[in-house]
Amino acid sequence: MKAFMTRGTIRFLETLEKKNTDIDFYFISSNDGGIAYYENSSKNIFSSGQAFEVLKAVGKLSKEGYVVMNHLPVSEDSSSTFEYRMKQSDSGIEKTDGFQAWRFLRQEKTSKYVVLTQWKSFADFENWKNSDQFKKAHDSQKAKQPSYFMDRPFVISGHMHEKEE
């Protein structure tokens, strides 16, 4: 399965939905602006944006909730090990109160990854982040850090955009 993501104003991104009624979009409002995300087998409708391979999916995405996307550049020589560990990991996240969905994505033609989690609320995410399960899950996920600052990990978070009727 593939996933596709692009950025822009929510107003602009919503126009994509009107033109592509066969696609189930998820819109995220973050401090940086808007993000449109969708999953399907291959159809990329974005003229600019990112395409991903979905390496592992847990849970069902919802049109409501809080989303955290960890963008993780991994060195080429560590990517196989990193993927294996992430695919095999059993953090227990899906048993955590407020959990909705988890996606492990690899950007096409790169060794950059996104770990997307979706929660019912920001408080549910904070509870997960402060849990022993979180600490345990992240202790074993270390990968070789890239050499250049422009390839440092970063996080984007935000709430699912609620459409005005």
Automatic annotation (TrEMBL):
This is ABM domain-containing protein. It comes from the Bacteria. Pfam families: ABM (PF03992). It comes from Oceanobacillus neutriphilus. Residues 66-160 form the ABM domain. Transmembrane segments: none annotated.
